[in-house]
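// run 5 | inverse folding | seed 20
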């Protein structure tokens, strides 16, 4: 019980301190620094009215599609580069060159190429999700014990069976490490993309709240996104443990 409650104590202390400071400075700061209780109440109102659900669903769908596309290409590219040294030497400089560009740095160019629509944030998320997965899978493939693969081949394993029974289990730690990094970052990317160019989504709701000077709504949106980012990362931690044990 103590192990479960212990990590929550700093968060609880932070919220209590926030509430105390906000109440103490209410006369000076007013609505610019609302107490955490007001943020919670506003979150409940937004959820109950359906407004939060509408915007959040748009953002979640964009994250899921972009993450799936980017991670899939990352896994494929990482496997190819890690298994073939010639291809690794050929593609590594190009991958490193593009990795140096932040995902959001592509927004102006993609707005010209793709226009302002659903494809824009999904593409940005896919770009962001590609690189961590590609690098971790590449490293895992390169560092894989090749003797295990040789033994499996001598015992008759080949093709999809070799891939499923030998290669994938060896890559589990590297693969899930990249997926955790990509999943958490996908939410950070989508919120920025929506703030720039989208009429719907949590990022768009944030910008609308900023124009109305509704700090409580801004904080509510940020908390929802941080919570979902943590949940996604924990899901991959859970799946990794289940995969290793299973």
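// decoded
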């Amino acid at each position: 019980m103590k192990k479960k409650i212990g990590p929550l104590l700093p968060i609880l202390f932070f919220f209590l301190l926030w509430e105390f400071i906000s109440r103490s400075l209410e006369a000076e700061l007013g609505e610019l620094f609302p107490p955490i209780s007001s943020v919670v109440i506003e979150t409940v109102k937004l959820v109950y009215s359906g407004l939060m659900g509408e915007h959040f669903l748009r953002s979640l769908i964009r994250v899921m599609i972009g993450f799936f596309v980017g991670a899939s290409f990352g896994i494929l590219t990482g496997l190819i580069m890690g298994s073939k040294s010639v291809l690794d030497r050929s593609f590594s400089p190009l991958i490193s060159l593009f990795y140096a560009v932040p995902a959001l740095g592509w927004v102006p160019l993609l707005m010209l190429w793709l226009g302002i629509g659903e494809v824009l944030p999904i593409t940005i998320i896919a770009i962001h999700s590609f690189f961590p997965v590609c690098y971790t899978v590449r490293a895992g493939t390169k560092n894989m014990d090749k003797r295990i693969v040789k033994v499996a081949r001598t015992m008759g394993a080949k093709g999809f069976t070799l891939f499923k029974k030998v290669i994938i289990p060896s890559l589990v730690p590297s693969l899930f490490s990249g997926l955790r990094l990509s999943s958490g970052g996908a939410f950070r990317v989508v919120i920025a993309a929506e703030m720039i160019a989208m009429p719907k989504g949590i990022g768009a709701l944030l910008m609308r709240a900023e124009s109305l000077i509704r700090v409580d709504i801004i904080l509510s949106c940020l908390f929802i996104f941080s919570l979902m980012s943590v949940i996604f990362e924990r899901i991959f931690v859970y799946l990794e443990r289940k995969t290793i044990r299973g």
